[in-house]
Write a structure and sequence with these properties.
This protein is mainly beta. It is about 10% helix and about 35% strand. It folds into five domains: about 5-60 and about 85-155, Jelly Rolls; about 180-260 and about 265-290, Immunoglobulins (Immunoglobulin-like), CATH 2.60.40; about 310-605, TIM Barrel, CATH 3.20.20.80; about 615-710, Immunoglobulins (Immunoglobulin-like, Sandwich); about 720-825, Immunoglobulin-like (Sandwich). It is built from ten helices and 46 strands. The strands form eleven sheets. It has an eight-stranded parallel beta barrel with strand order 21-22-23-24-25-26-27-28, surrounded by four helices. Helix 3 (about 330-345) crosses helix 4 (about 355-365) and helix 5 (about 390-405) runs parallel beside helix 6. It is globular, with a radius of gyration of 27 Å. Bound molecules: beta-D-galactopyranose (GAL). Beta-D-galactopyranose binds near residues 352, 419, 501, 565 and 567. Pfam families: DUF4982, Glyco_hydro2_C5, Glyco_hydro_2, Glyco_hydro_2_C, Glyco_hydro_2_N. This is Glycoside hydrolase family 2 protein.
Length: about 850
């Protein structure tokens, strides 16, 4: 058969590799990301003959909103960026005559928002929900031969449609696929492991066969299973005949001495499904990655992974990638997850929508547990133009599709049917009935995982029948109620689905320590105490989790800062509707344990001290308090060691014992009847300020195991560049993240520097983004310059596709010695 890839004028590396090992007529699936044209604005651009020659040419994934500019006319709640409005994407391609009679499908991993897809001027389908993937059979709309086909996609984003930055555009990958009429259906395999022992795993493979041909098809389905080393560990073949549109075949296989998927050893098996015709020729080929593992939840022991009790050390994550916006990037996601793992995280909640496939693939690979969440809203609106408008027509297909797409991922250990759904308050049973219906849908699609939701009201959903419908009861922000819930409902399995919501700006400290609602600087102190009325410091959650060991752990709000929802600035709480521009220019969140660029805030280390076993110490604040000589500075130490000792310019200021010595912190939030906590999770010292060196040393069993020093810096004199990776692939996608640190003449980090740094990028690379983690900065993410924030900025570069050699980067700033770094490109 002709090589369709070359006709498509797309890069088809994966296709070519696959094609070589397949019989000529098996499935072909190619990236459809290249050579799109894009324009914003209301217009009628669906027709094949529409002239798009002056539109911008680009490669997907693409997020038009991240390009900016920021403007007061946009809602700070959604990032102060142009997420609203209409946008069009068009692409021309040819389809060879040899594809006639086959099934040609186009697949969007997601399209933000309200997509309409046209092929040669004909509407093929609409899909409002921006987070869901979908595929259309476009065979009948195509012209085969050397004439051009045009696919056009219209997207419309309304103002006040979400509570955070959604991004805008074809922000996930697009694929084109050609199959024979009889094939494995879209998301057509479901692989379960109903029985698992050390000795043997029973693998049940349900394969849906789609059949678009006339008459009866007779053939066979063969499924082979390979381990990570490529060894074939099982194989099963079944003859079948079908004349139906879709038919499910169930096969059973056994894997001897199975290697489990685990957080420590996330081993996956690969199943290869082959559909053969009566002559034994392969006419379809489909790959599914899966894991062998057991999950179990009990009221007494909580969550058991492969029989081992496991607490959720979880983070909620929105889908954006900070300065890179919402356009999905594998490396950016991998880096985010690696930073989370370094904090001690073992679980991700995909708040509050189906995530990208890349995120799930990475969680499988990196051994992270996932709560896969479907909705932030049902029928009752949270914001004016939310998903509730589409609820009646779309919730069922959206929920079913999320599960069909995701159910082979071993990382997913629960489905969530919603976050803080307002129906939870219904006293007439309607909310509970709807919850039951959604739980039933989940079970119909997957009977192997429990269903949960995040409840924030108290006590209504616990008493009105709503919580009863859930397998796992997620509680948002009510740690002081855990004991009451467990006592009243001893059979319920409960965890903190959203916790803390503490806010802070990286590297910013306000003295004296006080709990305020807002600060005139439009920043928030990093003494890790501030939060809106429903929020509380991390220590409070640690405390109540410890008091209630049956609680299965927590998912903090949030791991990363995200674009939009700049609480405490703008709107006061989630029910503040309309525009959140009251404290402009603040436009992105303060909730993250790391900032928008992935630089850890102090809270990162507080969680690390609780969640990680690797010996660590951390000390705050910075040590640049010019003019405050002799005044007392509160110093906090976070550690997982037995003891920590603080030294100022070499003099010991005393050892403190973790868990015994406490720090009194101010606490004020709903349902907590004291105004403080004597926290055993942080150590503290009152230190009269003198410039120099502040060192914290951690001891285990009396031995020093960890130390960290902060130093008083002089005036900014230069820039230090540190790349996370100095060799990257020249594929136009891979990224190097370069930390830009302003330093004094001795190379000491300047913790308050805000110098503007200019970047010159030469050789085979281009700028992907810049950032600094300042939620109030209106600087562009796309220009080769950035002010430092608390001494740091981030530069992200990518290689030009096919380039080789080096990317040479120079960073300079007024009054600063310039600095250079090179990144090598690999082909
Ligand atoms: C929760 C909500 C999150 C976020 C958070 C901020 O109530 O579920 O999406 O808004 O508050 O604290």
């Amino acid at each position: 058969m002709n090589n369709i890839g070359t006709f498509l004028k797309t890069t088809v590396v994966a296709f070519l590799a696959l094609g070589a090992v397949l019989a000529a007529s098996a499935r072909e699936r190619v990236s459809f990301n290249d050579s799109w044209r894009f324009a914003k604005g209301d217009q009628q651009a669906s027709g094949a003959s529409f002239d798009d020659r002056d539109w911008r040419e680009l490669r997907l994934p693409h997020d038009w909103a991240i390009e900016g500019p920021y403007d007061f006319k946009y809602n700070a709640r959604t990032g102060g960026l142009p997420v609203v409005g209409e946008g069009w994407y068009r692409k021309s391609f040819q389809m060879p005559k040899s594809a006639k009679g086959k099934v040609v499908s186009i697949e969007f991993d997601g399209a933000m928002y309200g997509s309409e897809v046209y092929v040669n001027g004909k509407l093929v389908g609409k899909r409002p929900y921006g987070y869901i993937g979908f595929q259309y059979d476009i065979s009948k709309y195509l012209i085969y031969g050397d004439k051009e086909n045009v696919v056009a996609v219209r997207l419309v984003l309304e103002d006040l449609a979400t509570r955070w930055y959604s991004g805008a555009g074809l922000y996930r990958n697009v694929w084109l696929q050609v199959t024979e009429p009889t094939r494995v259906a879209h998301w057509g395999t479901f692989i379960k492991t109903p029985e698992v022992s050390d000795h043997e795993a029973t693998v049940e493979i349900d394969t849906r066969i789609a059949h678009a041909g006339r008459g009866t098809f007779k053939g066979s389905l063969e499924t082979e299973i390979f381990d990570a080393d490529g060894r074939r560990v099982a194989s099963v073949s079944s003859d079948f005949a079908t004349s139906e549109d879709e038919k499910t075949l169930t096969q059973l296989a056994k894997i001897r001495n199975p290697r489990r998927w685990d957080t420590e050893d996330p081993h996956r098996y690969r199943a290869i499904s082959r559909v053969r015709n009566a002559k034994g020729q392969t006419i379809d080929f489909y790959e599914t990655m899966f894991g062998v593992r057991t999950i179990e939840y009990t009221a007494e022991q909580g969550f058991l992974l492969n029989g081992k009790q496991t607490k959720f050390k979880g983070v909620c994550l929105h889908h954006d990638q900070g300065p890179l916006g919402a356009a999905v990037n594998y490396r950016a996601k991998e880096r985010q997850l690696q930073i989370m793992k370094d904090m001690g995280v073992n679980a991700i909640r995909t708040s509050h929508n189906p995530p990208s496939i890349e995120l799930l693939e990475l969680c499988d690979k990196m051994g992270l547990l996932v709560q896969d969440e479907s909705f932030d809203v049902w029928k009752i609106a949270k914001v004016e133009n939310g998903y509730n408008k589409f609820w009646d027509e779309w919730h069922e297909p959206d929920l079913r599709d999320m599960i069909k797409r995701d159910r082979n991922h071993p990382s997913i250990v629960m489905w969530s049917i919603g976050n803080e759904i307002l129906e939870q308050r219904n006293t007439n049973g309607e909310g509970a009935a709807l919850a039951r219906r959604l739980v039933d849908i989940c079970k119909e699609e997957d009977d192997t995982r429990p269903v949960t939701a995040g409840l924030n009201h108290y006590p209504q959903p616990h008493d009105n029948g709503f919580a009863e419908e859930l397998d796992l009861v997620g509680i948002n922000y009510k740690p002081s109620m855990y004991a009451e819930v467990l006592e009243k409902y001893p059979d319920r399995i409960v965890y903190g689905s959203e916790t803390s919501s503490c806010v802070s700006s990286r590297g910013v400290y306000h003295l004296p320590i006080e709990k305020y609602e807002k600060h005139e600087s439009l920043q928030v102190t990093s003494y890790d105490l501030i939060g809106p009325v429903w929020a509380y410091p991390p220590d409070i959650e640690f405390h109540f989790q410890e008091q209630n060991p049956r609680i299965m752990g927590e998912f903090i709000w949030t791991g990363f800062d995200y674009l939009g929802e700049p609480t405490p600035y703008g709107g006061r709480d989630n029910s503040t509707n309309g525009h959140w521009n009251g404290d402009w220019p603040v436009h992105s969140s303060f909730f993250g344990a790391v900032d928008l660029c992935g630089f850890p805030k102090d809270r990162f280390f507080l969680y690390q001290s609780q969640w990680s076993d690797k010996p660590m110490v951390h000390v705050l604040p910075h040590w640049n308090w010019e003019g405050m000589e002799g005044e007392t500075i509160p110093v906090y130490g976070y550690t997982n060691c037995d003891e920590a000792e603080l030294f100022l310019n070499g003099r010991s200021l005393g050892r403190k014992v973790k868990g015994v010595d406490t720090t009194r912190i101010i606490v004020k939030f709903k349902r907590y009847d004291s105004d403080h906590l004597d926290s055993k999770y942080r150590l503290s010292w009152e230190v009269p300020y003198e410039p120099g060196e502040l060192t914290i040393v951690g001891y285990k069993a009396g031995q020093e195991v960890s130390r960290k020093t902060v130093r008083t810096a002089g005036k900014p004199a230069g820039v230090r560049l540190t790349a996370d990776r100095s060799v990257i692939a020249a594929d136009g996608k891979d990224l190097s993240f370069i930390t830009v640190q302003v330093v004094d003449e001795n190379g000491i980090a300047c913790p308050t520097a805000d110098n503007e740094i200019h970047f010159d990028i030469q050789g085979g690379g281009v700028l992907a983004a810049v950032g600094n983690g300042n939620p109030a900065s209106l600087e562009s993410f796309r220009l080769p310059k950035r002010k430092a924030f608390s001494g740091k900025a981030l530069l992200v570069v990518r290689g030009k596709p096919g380039a080789s050699g080096l990317i040479d980067i120079t960073a300079s700033g007024e009054g600063l010695d310039s600095s250079r770094i090179s990144i090598s490109l690999e082909n």
